[in-house]
Prior knowledge:
By secondary structure, chain A is an alpha/beta fold. In chain A, 38% of the residues lie in helices and 16% in strands. Chain B folds into 2 domains: 5-104, Elongation Factor Tu (Ef-tu), domain 3 (Beta Barrel), CATH 2.40.30.10; 110-238, Nucleotide-binding domain of ferredoxin-NADP reductase (FNR) module (Rossmann fold, 3-Layer(aba) Sandwich).
Amino acid sequence: xxxxxxxxxxxxxxxxxxxxxxxxxxxxxxxxxxxxxxxxxxxxxxxxxxxxxxxxxxxxxxxxxxxxxxxxxxxxxxxxxxxxxxxxxxxxxxxxxxxxxxxxxxxxxxxxxxxxxxxxxxxxxxxxxxxxxxxxxxxxxxxxx
Amino acid sequence: xxxxxxxxxxxxxxxxxxxxxxxxxxxxxxxxxxxxxxxxxxxxxxxxxxxxxxxxxxxxxxxxxxxxxxxxxxxxxxxxxxxxxxxxxxxxxxxxxxxxxxxxxxxxxxxxxxxxxxxxxxxxxxxxxxxxxxxxxxxxxxxxxxxxxxxxxxxxxxxxxxxxxxxxxxxxxxxxxxxxxxxxxxxxxxxxxxxxxxxxxxxxxxxxxxxxxxxxxxxxxxxxxxxxxxxxxxxxxxxxxxxxxxxxxxxxxxxxxxxxxxxxxxxxxxxxxxxxxxx
Amino acid sequence: xxxxxxxxxxxxxxxxxxxxxxxxxxxxxxxxxxxxxxxxxxxxxxxxxxxxxxxxxxxxxxxxxxxxxxxxxxxxxxxxxxxxxxxxxxxxxxxxxxxxxxxxxxxxxxxxxxxxxxxxxxxxxxxxxxxxxxxxxxxxxxxxxxxxxxxxxxxxxxxxxxxxxxxxxxxxxxxxxxxxxxxxxxxxxxxxxxxxxxxxxxxxxxxxxxxxxxxxxxxxxxxxxxxxxxxxxxxxxxxxxxxxxxxxxxxxxxxxxxxxxxxxxxxxxxxxxxxxxxxxxxxxxxxxxxxxxxxxxxxxxxxxxxxxxxxxxxxxxxxxxxxxxxxxxx
Amino acid sequence: xxxxxxxxxxxxxxxxxxxxxxxxxxxxxxxxxxxxxxxxxxxxxxxxxxxxxxxxxxxxxxxxxxxxxxxxxxxxxxxxxxxxxxxxxxxxxxxxxxxxxxxxxxxxxxxxxxxxxxxxxxxxxxxxxxxxxxxxxxxxxxxxxxxxxxxxxxxxxxxxxxxxxxxxxxxxxxxxxxxxxxxxxxxxxxxxxxxxxxxxxxxxxxxxxxxxxxxxxxxxxxxxxxxxxxxxxxxxxxxxxxxxxxxxxxxxxxxxxxxxxxxxxxxxxxxxxxxxxxxxxxxxxxxxxxxxxxxxxxxxx
Lengths: 145, 279, 330, 301
């Protein structure tokens, strides 16, 4: 992330926290099916969407990410039975908190994407990238360096 | 030219100079000795025995270590892996560039030792600061009386500076080395037992002693030394505290009104008795 | 004395701002501190500012040097030194005293702190006398004269409707000449200073503390302490710092930042041992440092009686009350 | 309140004299008339230091953590909010109920210290903001209750029915994203990270806070708006659902940061999203973020 960006060559950096069992498999499927999706996303595999601590999201914005997606199994399908129900509560709340402190609401998203939903993965990250491209680079919560 | 204490005071004392690690010796499973020289192969500074140096991998951190020996063109630091920086240091290879600044602290009172018999007592990594003095005494052998070293570690593998202990030092004229380990172990035919008891058993002629090791060793060795008749001003030890600046400004290494980085790390028992017991 | 009407003070500041980065006591979002002067700052002249001027010389976060670490290689690069001349208007006697303490720490005992020295040398000081004590002030007890600061270049006097200026140093004389066009010569008398609400009898305390390291008083005093760093951060004399690095990829900056002896991590060693593990030891160290260790090392108290900690401590740890307890302790 | 003070002293004396407790945690007069800091009384002859007046803001429950591993019992005076704090500490398994003798005091609301300082001893000093919103002025858990329980219950009933005033939160919600960000940045720009807010907070009861472990790398020592907001938001999320609205964080803050505006926002959203919930009212192991409902709102489809 030390690449210096200028207004003209700016491309958004989007971090996707993908649950190992569903969304990561979904992303994999999108790849195998040759579904094109923007190269702006970086996938960080987590054991469960419930593993994603609020600090992870904040740290991402601090270090210069323009958008964050937390994605996991659909409710009821969690590999650990109930992990994503906690995720749902946590991020319903945090999404509102981030909005409250001034982050553009588009920049933080959560989605349920199963292992068979390659096309959905493609669609979600494409839409997210477009939205964030329209917003421009994120300066909020970002550290100066 | 190697930097002296006086010169360090002229340059910005908080900014390290670049140096490189030219040799790494695995002393024990968790202790390595690092040989450090400047980029133009000089000593980064010329430490007195017992003085300290601030070594850094700037991206990880910076910490104070005692200089265990100095060579013609390098200094040596024996470092035990205990925290974030030391763990990272144990990962580096020869050729690694590091930051270094110093020398700091008072060092051992060499003049006081002149002509005297000296008993060195070390436990574990505690031999590191003491070794700088032992090496000085060996370099200028004629200035000092009889040298005796009592050194202990948990096991054979945990003994630091094995080459010195078993090869080099026993050959030095009028120098005795006594090594002990805490528990019996296969392949060890030396002494077994803790340092305090061993010191008592060996019964030395009280002149001056330098001891350094874990607090528990110091705690139990002191009564033995006092029994043997060592006076408080002849019992010398070095202390350890968390340090950041090394120049008596940042505050944390104080014991009473004394800053360990500046006024220490070498203290006599007489001095320590005047300080609050907070170390 | 050279005087000017108080409402015309901005003219003086405006003029000085041509040559200096002028820092003035001002209020922003309910917090008062020294702020670069501009026409729209809200000047605070009735009382001392909450945040002490120490951050002008010793910022809460300060870059020390840059480095680049890649594989085995390392580059260390010193940062360019700022050249800008600064001027503080309105520093009070207690805070001047704190600079005396900081000078001792950063400029003596063998090593000079270059970062501090540089800022100290390029900062001129115009002291402002106090008219009346605030409710938590006790500077007089700490040997400070609230109407005549020590170490300023110019002493300004708050004469209620007017402000008077008296040059103290040569540098002060030069500054005064720059603004002399705005000032008029007038015979004035300095208003008398009221009674202090808080007092502390420090006589004999450093000596008495010598024998009090193990005294039960510390367990008692420390019980209500939260071990937050509020007192140390608003204190004009507290000067402990930590050194840390900010690393992004290969590039890094070494920074130093305020630290507090109230925090556990302050003395925590890598191996796990902590010589000051609980709040009792930390509180003891803080007050011992102010009232005994510092006087022993530098022959002056590390408290100026500014009263900031008394006001800002969330649990009202009051150093004057602690001094009283020490005096009364058996 | 004079009456309550006398009852406090009497009960404290009795508990200490009988040896039922080793120490009593209450309040005493501080440096100024508008300060009533915590007092720790361990001798019956010292009970006269205890007071209950308009400035007993301090939430004493947090101090009980210091006595967790000490032998003997501790008595503590609790207002409504303090009792909720005690419940949260029970909920978080930080305290054992039996170790503490709880003396409940119905609270008429504490007065604003800043206003008191400004208006003087004879001024008409308003209640602190946190107290104006209080729904539970009476202690919810206690072994002794000082004062008239019935009258207190009646007074409290009118408060419980009252809707909390979220207008301050709503005012921020109405801003544009940039206005919100500017507002919060200017607040947290002046944060000095003294951690008074955390140390005073009963919901901040981790054995070792991540902000005290710089080696983990979660936060640097550098003070800047980004790090300060990282701290503030992490803490807000961490106490979400456990904040008992005692407002101590905001009172303790030496830099006047409106910390409760973050906490109130989270409380408001929790109520809207997961149903009405008041932290520390019941100890039932059901915390909003430590618990779920399969029928929670679904926005992440």
